[in-house]
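name: query_chain
kind: protein
chains: 1
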Amino acid sequence: MSIKYAPDGNSLIDNTGSIITVFDARYGPLRAILSAQDGTVAENKTAADHYKYLVGEAQSNIDRGLPYAALPDKPRQKVIDDTGSVSYVAFTPSLPDVVIPAPTAPPVPGGLMGAMVAAGAGVPDRNAIMQNQVDAMFRKAFPGVTP
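structure:
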């Protein structure tokens, strides 16, 4: 059981389930521990969010093939128990990692035409292609005339 406020809103319930009023000598130290635990929640959220942002930024660059800055070590989650002792553990659930994609085949020089030639197709006659395009434009512009 952890330290929490009693239903009256002023007293605290300690880890044994006893109600500690503001007039009890144990109230001050328990209130300090509860405050530290509440602050730790915010610290852990900030550390996790910042690390997730850095990983997302690096992953975006990796996905686009760009260099990325080296990531810091994964932060550890700060835990304060009911006696006030501090420890650090791995986040649960664990923080994300950068995923390096598998390498792909390099692009063939020359684009699609280079790939066709590399696959065994003959090199096309560029002059014939251009003449066919000019003829098509002429037939469209002058439908009844033969060149």
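note: The helical segments are 27-63, 111-118, 126-141.
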